[in-house]
Amino acid sequence: MRVLGAFPEAMPSSNSRPPACLAPVALFLALLLHLFLSSQAGDRRPLPVDRAPGLKEKTLILLDVSTKNPVRTVSENFLSLQLDPSIIHDGWLDFLSSKRLVTLARGLSPAFLRFGGKRTDFLQFQNLRNPAKSRGGPGPDYYLKNYEDDIVRSDVALDKQKGCKIAQHPDVMLELQREKAAQMHLVLLKEQFSNTYSNLILTEPNNYRTMHGRAVNGSQLGKDYIQLKSLLQPIRIYSRASLYGPNIGRPRKNVIALLDGFMKVAGSTVDAVTWQHCYIDGRVVKVMDFLKTRLLDTLSDQIRKIQKVVNTYTPGKKIWLEGVVTTSAGGTNNLSDSYAAGFLWLNTLGMLANQGIDVVIRHSFFDHGYNHLVDQNFNPLPDYWLSLLYKRLIGPKVLAVHVAGLQRKPRPGRVIRDKLRIYAHCTNHHNHNYVRGSITLFIINLHRSRKKIKLAGTLRDKLVHQYLLQPHGQEGLKSKSVQLNGQPLVMVDDGTLPELKPRPLRAGRTLVIPPVTMGFYVVKNVNAVACRYR
Fold first, then answer.
1. Strand-pair category, 166-168 with 113-115
2. What is this structure's pTM?
3. Element (H, E) at 254
């Protein structure tokens, strides 16, 4: 290729000046020649194109927290536990004699301990006495009597100064104070009540027809609760016992109707309104099911439905999520008990507290399918370590989070769901490693890329302790082992939990959240007004 230029054949004399019109022509020819030579040399770089703000590879997220007043305050026993009746399906399991299991349970105190589930509707309580202690005894009353002292001594899920709070019985949930023979009296009360009200089933009463072939409406259920309350009050042990219900299932249309009828009759009788939640009906087929933001958000809609009915009849009444599992039918091995399931669990804790649910009871503490915190060999699973960190670091006061740069601008017809979820609480005042006024963030990153967060406002230039929880081993998200800041978490021995060591970050450092991980971040010495006092 050649570049040709047209010049006049007769050149002007040396003392003559070039015409003014030749200057732009010469400039154009020089530019054309430069572009030609660049292409010949192989310089084929594309011209820079402005990217849309949502397509930037790196977005710095600015994070601040309101420190003057909490937006919510939940129960000190917010994260509580449940034991499923499957542990006694083939004979009573002497779980309280296990030092290891008691150590694991004590690590999650203070909490309510609920003994319940669908199978409790079919347990038969017989008042038989047998002084012998052996597995496979004659009945629950025998077990409860012989192990009454063990229940008290073990301090399972309790704050020692407050006494043992055991929410336990097959048909309703009671809070029992630590007293001699309390369990035995409860067995006798169950017998009396079941003989009086054969149609009363309070564990998911909306499924009563499916399980028993008979139905109960909300009004009748409310009347039964009122009658139960009248039976409890004359008995000294239960005169101050708390009563919770109706423990409905997922709030679909028929369930909401049952709750409406119940609240109209017995809304003032119960101390808290309860329901249960299962994220996935059926078995999970792949690990990515646990990372779907649409699935994580289903709980928020259920909360609003329950609150609407409750506030219609008893505004301000406490609400409990009395049983939450990731998947139904006992869960899926290597998935429901893996690191991946923790995204649902931690988001559940953050969302419930943020929307004002007072207590959430995890089903189950151990030995029930694959949704448990502790496996059949009493080894803690990833959700246990997540719960332990939550208990150690998170206090009951919820704080408002303010972020900038978190979401893209949504396009018409498209919903942008958060894959980066940030919650903030006052740091647990029982944790003596941190002074009052400190704030704890917990962050879920579902993105496949790391995210950078810059603390701003009242959090700017503060020292931060990082507790980053990641899967340990070659299984990745399917791992049943976890590491904290790169160190595997394992029990020291049957009576000792490991020390949860933070990684200190220098003041003002940007928080880097690795892809598909969870972490807790304690911002020290913020002196937050909302967190100074209990």
1. parallel
2. 0.77
3. helix 253-266
